[in-house]
Design brief:
Length: 147
Amino acid sequence: MFFNGSQNAIVGSGSESHSYQDYKEKVDSELAKESHLKIEASMSVANNKVAINGLVTNTGQEPISNVRVMLVVYEDRAKSERHHVVRDMLPSQSILSLAPGATQSFSAVSDELLADNMSKVKAIVFIQSVDLPQREILQAVLAAQES
């Protein structure tokens, strides 16, 4: 399992409940971090393609630099195995610098998707640092579906 681009394996914990607790601790520590980025994103589906549009705003007091807007399209298949299936990862979009209070827009359109049910397709937008070795995820949002 990768957390922020680093492999911090939690393998063979012995029981499902113990594994859950190990993962929960890592996720909770990430959720406790304050983010200085706000993402607003929406998506629409037409002709088996997904269009994603949005804005990234720096809500902090310091400039943000060297980050990427990452866009992932997935299908929620509601099955016990392969519940969420990634259907496309759109090209990342760089933000070289974003001053405090500044906003930058982004948009992308997927290739034609081979999803089982296009009404179950969703999109995640996240901001990731490009700095090695961590490539930390700074903020994420589920894109709102347009009517």
